[in-house]
Amino acid sequence: MRISLPAALCATALLLGSNASATSTNNWLGYNGSYPGDRYSTLTEINRSNVAHLHAVCVFQYGELGPAQTAPVIANGVMYVTGDETTYALDATTCKLRWKNTYVNTSVKSGIANRGVALLDGKLFRGTPDSHLIAIDAATGHTLWDVKVSDSSDGSNTVAAPLAWDGKVFIGIAGSEDGVKGKIMAFSATDGKPLWTFDAIAGGDDPGAATWGNASATATGGGGTWSSFGLDTATGALFVPIGNPGPDFSADYRPGANLYTSSIVALDANTGKLRWYYQLVPHDYHDWDAAAPPALYRGANGKPMMSFAGKSGILFTIDYATHSLISKVPVTTIVDADKPFTTEGTHFCPGTLGGVEWNGPAYSPHDKRVYVNAIDWCSTVRLGEVRYVRGTAFLGSGNGMGVKDAQGGTGWLTAVDPLTGKIAWRYHAPALMVAAVTPTAGGVLFTGETTGEFDAFDSSNGKLLYRFNTGGSVAGGIATYAVGGKQYVAAVSGNQSRTSVKGGGAPSIFVFSL
Amino acid sequence: MCALAFALGALPAPAVELTLAPDEITAAVGEGGAMAARGEGYVIGSYLLFSVDDALHIAEDDQTIEAVVVATPYERLRFQAYLLAHEGRPAPGQGDQFLARDRGVLEIVVYAHSRGPGDREFMQHFGAGALASAGTTRDAVQVTSTDPVIDSYYLSNGTVVKRWLGQVTYRFDLRNDPALAAATAPATLSFLDDRGAVRRYTLTLAGYR
Prior knowledge:
Shape of chain A: globular
CATH architecture of chain A: 8 Propeller
Radius of gyration of chain B: 17 Å
Number of domains of chain A: 1
Structural class of chain B: alpha+beta
Strand content of chain A: 35-45%
Shape of chain B: globular
CATH class of chain A: Mainly Beta
Number of strands of chain A: 36
Distance between the termini of chain A: 47 Å
Helix content of chain B: 10-25%
Largest interface: A-B, 22 and 17 residues
Structural class of chain A: mainly beta
Helix content of chain A: under 10%
CATH topology of chain A: Methanol Dehydrogenase, Chain A
Strand content of chain B: 25-35%
Largest sheet of chain A: 5 strands, antiparallel
Radius of gyration of chain A: 21 Å
Number of helices of chain B: 4
Strand order of the largest sheet of chain A: 1-18-17-16-15
Order of helices and strands of chain B: HEEHHEEEEEEHEE
CATH superfamily of chain A: Quinoprotein alcohol dehydrogenase-like superfamily
Number of strands of chain B: 10
Oligomer: heterodimer
């Protein structure tokens, strides 16, 4: 499963320096809070001894319908969140609206969610439903520039939260379910000028091109990107989760491992060149993409480590310097993972709405554990025809994305020692667990459930310490930050999507404090 | 759907073979398995009686029948073997129930799509079918259809539309019709489509293995 490039390309030791974790400050500066994306906060005002006294300080309702999967970004007391087409700046302590930016689509709207903004040098960057990337003045909300990333008429879109660093903005396109051929691009943060492109489907002289046994299948090969990225600022390595191959289910159409689908790829952030990759699921035929960005951190053994998980429901931890596997832990029910698909229907777990979705693992150096949410829900898929009609579903299925088990799904929050792979504790929820997980130095872990609960657990033992029902499905980001010396926690509620079967509600931001 | 030539003249069999000998079973299973192994799809070949040029586009006249396949026991076994191999399951054996059930039966499989996105039941409206040759007519003893599947098509102006698609199968019991099965003169297949219009196709049964 692990394939390394020549040593000259991969001798990139992770040098997680003191500036690596932006969450050590009072801000939350990206999808996962920091460039390495370990999601850990050193804030301690809210801790296991007082978290039970938490209360909701304010609520901001978008006043619009649709998915609420944004990751709040907080800088200097201002919170930035997104809807499909809207971007909001809020006072992070009162939820008072500072400004609103509404994007007007200029071509086909193919994306139905947005996962948030990137912030760099006073500019916000976000994708749009019609596959553009725009820059917004963080102070005024005015649009600064707007570039087209791809032709959205083929089903591609930019739902991922970009990452911005060193004068560049990184974003990828999603759309594997429509047979879109994925790519990652870098643009100038100054004016949106394209800088480089990396094709998520290996071809030509790329390492891995031979893993496509049917070369013509690469044109519709999938490999979308739909959450966000991780970055090692010391080495300039950009980590990109790559989605499933297309067609999703008729895998015989695309014999081979189908690189770089269902993989984490490490790119040179300055050039877009591939450094190395790790494929979670070779020749995926379950829609088990790698969706969430990895968490980079220095492990308890002092080594640079990376934990990541995808819809296959397995949490991987590798040694970043050697790319060798350290542990591999199932974090949800896995059944009939190797059973071939048939025209009568094949039942398997995790199903097409299972495993780890767009919010990935977090690492707490306080507890020396990785935490990750996962969905436990099986599906039955029937093999069907492979028909490509541009801009529509390209699945190779006789029943769309399959039929999910009628009894509904549940969720798991799992705490794992990444060095040993031992599970420290697990919480089994009656709801789907798809929200972000945020551990802190205060010994608490914040997350949410699709039945509407915002939860705070004791990160050492999984004991539930605080719960607040937001009235809407909690399936987006969970961020903690401080303003004026006071710690706050923001949770996104009201997700309306395939994961909202037990929730729904109105897209909202809830802010909590003591 | 592959628009392959109907190479009738090249086929050696003097009559459509409705009961397979052991070596024919072996051959059919081998052909189907080999096609799956090549990973290039199932090649209908000479069993394709009719097909539209492009099954992703809907022509101006809203052509709803995309293909008609002459599914002899040999072709059905070949397809079954292909499908099972494709799905990673064991190939049919000599004593397979599938073979016994189909002995003496000729099937005509009609691939079709609905005329609109709301007509999920369109296959239920297909009517009776018949085979006629040299003054002899045999009605289909059974008409079945698959569960419809929704999918996308292009209109001639490039617009993408949704249609239900599926297969309607006409089963003809020819066990007592050796003359029809061996007919070298052209036979006429007819059936009623979803609007009750008669669809006719000409075939020579003796040419099919």
